[in-house]
Write a structure and sequence with these properties.
single chain; alpha+beta; Rossmann fold; OB fold (Dihydrolipoamide Acetyltransferase, E2P); six-stranded mixed beta sheet; six-stranded antiparallel beta sheet; 9 helices; 21 strands; elongated; binds adenosine-5'-diphosphate; binds magnesium ion; nucleotide-binding; ABC_transporter-like_CS; Sn-glycerol-3-phosphate import ATP-binding protein UgpC; P-loop_NTPase; ATP binding
Length: 359
């Protein structure tokens, strides 16, 4: 068992609170992702797991064993380094062997472990090649093999693919997810890319200034963000968040430019959140602008971004700007009038301090 537990862990650097009272459990075999903006404490958490830093307060357990005073070597957690750099002058095989040769493991044992890990990662047929002759995905597998050949309890990755170009990143993250599932080992993964976090993780922990703001499965956090902070971090285009007031018929946001006919709207909501894909955009029927508003409130199309499979439409509704995500390539032009609306069930409500409110 290699579950990893933090109990109220705090770590300071001088006056900087790098990790603030963090509590979480990474389950055995889980692909667990820390996601947050730069300087939110992601790397510090990894260093605390590795044992390169010690908590000022709180306790860390690996596989049920308290490890605050256990050395990094004894924790047996492997870091797969930032750029997955392989030694270019060595074959893939020698790269994988390296950590064992360095530890003076007997040759027969090295061969056995390399064969095991190569079989698990499906790289037996490329071990003779130098890194320059491997594809991005193959290099990834070899770098992971090199980390896993030590047979660690868990492995950690700190933004491992941020240096790759967009296409290679997409390919590599699919690969990573597949590898982790096949290996069945605990993986803690750090990224500052929301799409990457959503796509790879079993669960995500969202960080802000060293504090964990929410932990959950990607879809759970996306559908029920605990605050406007979390809501803004996940999803592209970002959730539309608008000042709102409660009226007799429901919520009015952005000075009446959107109305949500929701009698169940919480009385203390001060903002509403609308995911771009939840905004309905219909033609504004009456040319003279005297539509009865049944299709929604009027908005003017500010700009249209056709992205092939879907289209992002930026709308000017009164003083507010909203972004809607539409399927395909609808016939919508800049400056056209449209009617916008949103199902009450799709609306997110937030209170004074930015916390989500239940309907
Ligand atoms: P992230 O990986 O999310 O970018 P870090 O864990 O690197 O965040 O940093 C969290 C906070 O701790 C930041 O404010 C950073 O400046 C500070 N910090 C990190 N490492 C050190 C260090 N060795 N000395 C001083 N401050 C540090
Ligand atoms: Mg970092």
């Amino acid at each position: 068992m290699a579950d990893i537990v933090f109990r109220n862990v705090t770590k300071r650097y001088g006056d900087t609170l790098a990790v603030d009272d963090a509590s979480f459990t990474v389950n055995d075999n889980e692909f667990f992702c820390f996601f947050g903006p730069p300087l939110s404490g992601k790397s510090t958490i990894l260093r605390l797991v590795l044992g390169l830093e010690t908590p000022d307060i709180g306790e860390i357990l690996i596989g049920g064993r308290p490890v605050n005073t256990v050395s990094p070597a004894e924790r047996n957690v492997a870091m797969v380094f930032q750029n997955l750099a392989l030694f270019p002058h060595m074959s893939a095989r020698d790269n994988v062997r390296f950590p064992l040769v360095e530890r003076r493991i007997a040759e027969a044992e090295i061969e056995k472990r390399v064969a095991d890990v190569a079989a698990k990662l499906h790289i037996g047929h490329i071990l003779h090649k130098p890194p320059a002759q491997l594809s991005g995905g193959e290099r990834q597998r070899v770098a992971i093999a090199r980390a896993l050949v030590r047979d660690p309890n868990a492995y950690l990755m700190d933004d491992p693919i941020s240096a790759l170009d967009a296409r290679l990143r997409e390919e590599t993250r699919v690969e990573l997810k597949r590898i982790q599932r096949e290996l069945g080992k605990t993986l803690i993964y750090v990224t500052h890319d929301q799409e990457e976090a959503m796509s790879v993780a079993d669960r995500i922990a969202i960080l802000e200034n060293g504090s964990i703001r929410q932990i959950g499965a990607p879809a759970e956090i996306y559908d029920r963000p605990a605050s406007t902070y979390v809501a803004r971090l996940l999803g592209s285009p970002m959730m539309n968040i608008l000042k709102s007031v409660r009226g007799a018929e429901g919520m009015e946001a952005a000075e009446g430019t959107i109305r949500i006919a929701d009698k169940a709207a919480p009385a203390d909501a001060v903002e509403i959140g609308l995911r771009p894909e939840d905004i309905k955009v219909r033609p504004w029927l009456d040319r003279d602008g005297t539509s009865d508003g049944r299709a929604g409130r009027p908005a003017r199309v500010f700009e249209v971004e056709p992205l092939g499979g879907y289209t992002v439409v930026t709308l000017a509704a009164g003083q507010a700007r909203l972004r809607a995500l539409l399927r395909g390539q609808p016939d919508i032009r800049p400056d056209a009038m449209v009617a916008i609306s949103c199902e009450p069930g799709r609306v997110h409500y937030f209170g004074q301090s930015g916390g989500a409110l239940a309907r």
